[in-house]
Amino acid sequence: MFRKNPGSTQALTVEENLELAARSAPQRVPLAEILATFPRLHDRRISYGRSLSGGEQQMLAIARALIRRLRLMLLDDPFEGLAVTIVQNLLEICRELDDALLRSPRNIGV
Domains in the chain, ordered, with CATH? Predict the structure, then answer.
């Protein structure tokens, strides 16, 4: 679980946040793959968490979860307070992830 505005990660760069999230994961998604999924985070990878917009912070929170190669991720109002363009971008990313999971030979039934 990742909080929306984790105070302890505000002093870390985007890249450091992702590396920290992946550190204790039994399996992890390569950093390059996560940054390719979130091009805006790739552009801001050396920026500190405190300098990110609300939408970028939300992308970072989702990316921190995804890098851990979770089997299940629950999102509670992930688009709250975000600009329409950011919401559209995040929805597209979620659709792509859903499509990728459905095509995966390791997918699990619900």
Answer: 7-103 (3.40.50.300)
Angle between helices 14-23 and 54-66 (to 10 degrees): 30
How many angstroms separate the CA atoms of 84 and 90, rounded?
10
* Distance (Å, whole) CA 86 – CA 55: 6
Q: Quick check: pTM over 0.85? A: no
**What are the residues facing 48 on neighbouring strands?**
13
| pLDDT over threshold 90, residue 52 | yes
d(CA 10, CA 17): 9
- Output the CA angle 65-72-7, nearest 5 degrees: 30
Please give the structure tokens belonging to residue 82: 């975000």
Tokens for 15, please give them: 């890249």
